Amino acid sequence: MAVITRYVVEHKGVEKFVSADKKAADQYDKMLDVADNLSEYIEGKGFNLDAPVLEELSIMLSKNKDSLTKLLKGVAAEGLLAQEKAEVVEIDKKKA
Question: What is the pTM of this model?
Fold first, then answer.
């Protein structure tokens, strides 16, 4: 029988991420903490978004913090989006 170490990230009582890699679990946990801070900030600025929309927006911003930093420094969104799209590899399932 094998012993397997699992790192589980829970957020608001819900299991969100499971990994055998402690570093990956710590990074995901930090991303969720940043998302919580963003949610609080957005609400504090007077935006009344539905809870699921606010959570999804905050997580998306947190996951893309490097791109967001570039946008805040003046990089054009169009160029940044084109660069990010170029990084995604799509497989044509019809040819495969």
Answer: 0.74
